[in-house]
UniProtKB/TrEMBL annotation:
Residues 30-61 are annotated as: Disordered. This is Pentacotripeptide-repeat region of PRORP domain-containing protein. PROSITE patterns: PPR (PS51375), PROKAR_LIPOPROTEIN (PS51257). NCBIfam families: PPR. Pfam families: PPR_2 (PF13041). Residues 49-61 have a biased composition (Basic and acidic residues). Keywords: Repeat, Transit peptide. GO terms for cellular component: mitochondrion. It comes from Panicum hallii var. hallii.
Length: 523
């Protein structure tokens, strides 16, 4: 804290901008910190020289990633008669950040400071500050800040210092820097407030978000589209459709233009809540707002077309993705699951055979994806074969694996085996993150549906008890499924409506129809 006060109250003589700083800028020799989430990008730099293309094999970024050292990569680049331009460096650094190679990114910026291949800008020092904080901690970053030439100690550098502190969870430090920025009349970036909102997004701290937004307004900082996307995602994770609608209305009133991410969050939130008509509206908005072939948007469309049962559109999207220079492992998993949802098991199997023959299967999620397809359709023999392959490959099944297998047994009428498989799954560690994940919730709900169909009220209650630990039960269809189990079992129970409301779900027309049927079994 003393160092923080020194930063805010006194100034050391800055390094002259024309003097190489080899002896001052820290080396990358100490142990790296655990990688925090990558920061949102700052303002784009002015173009200077050529810029590497992401897929270019001979780019500086690729050389840095593959070389034994940054110095060797730079020497090799210049030995080929190429100059090191700002565009090359910024592309390399952004790529390294995306891959969480913070130490290598720091070494790149230290080389730039040492060799000065072009005139330095505020953004160069900003990158140096960011990766110094990530590798060496906030104290080193503060010390570095004091040595940066005065003409570069402006808005961008201060904002990056605040974000560096927030990345390390040092909220008090960040507030102190923000006070200093207000004193200097420097504008605070909306990305700073984004970080604060994320840090306060846990249930116990969420009440602070309204204060953060009020302070944002007081500082005359206009919320960015990403600010509303974060707020939407918080509500969507809570399965609070009313909250999602409220945030989106606030966004429209503020005249903030939604982007593909906004519509993706809205569409998936409504798809999970089984509000497919509304979901379709937002899917059309994504399609209309798409710019180019962004792989993240295409992945969202894979998920959504799976929910909506749009096999034709799903095939078209997957064909587009296959034409990209690189397809992520996650994309294969999403495609398999989506084709399983639309009932195209053959297409899902083709993708599975493809990754089985061309890629090393090392992730439990890869096996779970094809298991979800087979078990959803009750193809137990093929699911069993995949499970054996999974064991043989050294991948350990998790709680979601056993959920899929239990569902497959139920779909095939093997109730006893399904219950035994569920008991096996209980031996696995089920974290809160897993219990709130969509695969866990939706597979568990399908188990509930199958127990309801056969009138097994005892096990339906047991499964519902697991679901009730999450906010997923806010969706009325979840409780309605439990009511169907009462109807099928011909059992009456009082206060079902009251229990539903207390759990946060709003009854709908189906609820009242089921309750009327249950009333008939009253003795």
């Amino acid at each position: 804290m003393l160092l923080l006060r020194a930063l805010l109250r006194r100034r050391r003589p800055p390094l002259p901008a024309h003097v190489p700083a080899a002896g001052f800028f820290t080396s990358s020799g100490c142990d790296a910190l655990a990688p925090p989430p990558p920061p949102l990008p700052g303002p784009p730099p002015a173009a200077e020289g050529p810029r590497d293309e992401p897929g270019q094999e001979g780019s500086l970024a690729r050389r840095v990633e593959r070389a034994a050292s940054v110095c060797a990569a730079m020497r090799g680049w210049m030995a080929d008669g190429r100059a090191v331009h700002r565009g090359h460096v910024f592309h390399a650094v952004n790529r390294l950040r995306r891959h969480r190679r913070h130490r290598t990114a720091l070494q790149v910026m230290e080389w730039i400071m040492r060799e000065r291949p072009y005139k330095l800008s505020e953004l160069d020092y900003s990158y140096l500050l960011e990766f110094t904080a990530k590798v060496h901690g906030i104290s080193e970053a503060e010390s570095l800040f004091l040595r940066v030439p005065q003409e570069y100690q402006k808005e961008l550098l201060y904002n990056n210092l605040v974000i560096a502190a927030l990345d390390l969870g040092l909220i008090k430090h960040s507030y102190a820097y923000m006070r200093k920025m207000r004193e200097l009349s420097l504008p605070i970036s909306p990305y700073v407030y984004n970080r604060l909102i994320i840090l306060h997004s846990s249930p116990g701290r969420r009440k602070t978000i309204s204060k953060i937004l009020s302070q944002m307004k007081a500082d005359r900082v206009t919320p960015h589209t990403s600010t509303y996307n974060i707020l939407l995602k918080i509500q969507a994770n809570e399965h609070n459709i009313d909250g999602v609608a409220r945030v989106f209305n606030d966004m429209k009133r503020a005249n903030i233009e939604p982007n593909e991410i906004t519509y993706g969050i809205l569409a998936i939130a409504h798809a999970v809540a089984r509000l497919y008509t509304v979901c379709q509206t937002y899917v059309e908005a994504i399609e209309n707002s798409m710019t180019g072939t962004n792989w993240s948007t295409l992945e969202i469309l894979l998920i959504l077309y799976g929910y909506l049962g749009k096999e034709k559109e799903l095939k078209r999207t997957w064909e587009i993705m296959q034409g990209l220079p690189h397809i992520r492992s996650k994309s294969f998993i999403l495609a398999i699951e989506a084709f399983g949802k639309v009932g195209s098991t053959e297409q899902a199997e083709k993708i599975w055979v493809n990754i089985n023959s061309t890629k090393k299967l090392s992730l439990t999620e890869q096996f779970n994806s094809i298991l979800s397809v087979y078990c959803r359709h009750g193809i137990v023999d093929k699911a069993s074969a995949v499970f054996k392959q999974m064991r043989a490959s050294g991948c350990q099944p998790n709680a979601i694996t056993y959920r899929h297998l239990a569902l497959g047994c139920l779909k095939s009428g093997l109730v006893k085996e399904a219950l035994n498989t569920m008991d096996m799954g209980k031996k696995e560690v089920v974290t809160k993150k897993v219990r709130s994940s969509t695969p866990w919730l939706e597979t568990t709900h399908m188990l509930l549906e199958n127990f309801a169909e056969i009138g097994d009220l005892e096990n339906a209650k047991r499964v519902y008890g697991e679901l009730s630990e999450s906010k997923y039960c806010r969706n009325s269809f979840v409780y309605n499924t439990l009511l169907k189990a009462y109807v099928k079992a011909k059992v009456y129970e009082p206060d079902l409506l009251r229990t539903m409301i207390l759990r946060g779900a709003m009854p709908d027309a189906e609820t009242y129809s089921l309750l009327r049927l249950i009333e008939q079994f009253k003795i």
